[in-house]
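Bumping with the actual sequence this time:
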Amino acid sequence: MKKHNSSPNALCRLLGVRHPIVQAGMVWCTGWELVAAVGKSGGLGTLGAGSMYPEELRAEINQLKSVWKGPFAVNVPLLYPDVEAHMETIREEQVPVVFTSAGSPKKWTSYLKDTGATVIHVVSSAAFAQKAEDAGVDAVVAEGFEAGGHNGREETTTMCLVPEVVDAVSVPVIAAGGLHDARSMLAALALGASGVQMGSRFVMTRENPAHAAFKQRIADAQAGETRLMLKDVTPVRLLRGPDGSFFDQVSQAEEEGADVQALRALLGRGRAKKGMREGDLLEGELEIGQVSALLDDLPGAGELVERIVQDFKAFKTRDMAQGFFWEGLA
């Protein structure tokens, strides 16, 4: 077991924020308005580059900088075709924090750190976390099976994954997957995490650019209506749509033993944009976490961060969080 730096204070200093709350960089569900609102409230907002062309990412960064002078992040899935152009944009725009995911961080970590960026890699196992630390990252995100979007094949839940990663590395660990409020943040810190990353919860905010129909479907979601699918192609957690939806098509194909080629043909292109940004609940991918069953309101992003912070403070008065407080929430 490595000596782990579990102090949320240390993570806040690393990121330059007041609160160890990170808004995840999700495809089709991030934009400069959301990132600015999170940043102004003391958290770290993240642009999801995976659904942006290089010129779109640059435009989003410039829009963000025009309204917010503080720290922000960009998430880059390393398997995406425009990764080299995105990295060049990140270097030229001097992005302060970069999250990498969906690939090995070995190639790009030193490049990003040479630009002055703080580099954090998203992992789904302790073994991947150790490799990321060996590659020189400043922190890791331990993302459990509950999370929305693309997920690890290991299917390790957040409750099990976070302490495994905490015990395996010495860099700060940010917990993700099923985290949405002060209670879940408290649990993550109790497991040894230095902070939390929330994706699905920030989809359900007013500044999020996701389509209103997608948000309404999330608000209506019941327990058990998400499933990790397409594990033989690219694992992704999807929310059930109406009868005959893409969700049902994939479910039927997998039950019938469809091979990888058939699943790829069914997936096609543009499904995520169609579902999450354009609101096509029938033919689009509806990527969201298991926690969707608990999300039925639509606060402002800044209001959400403040609510989490205030609720977390309340635990202190109930003697439920001794030893888990940091500067900014004391």
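The tokens above came from a reply further down the thread. The longest helix spans residues 301-317.
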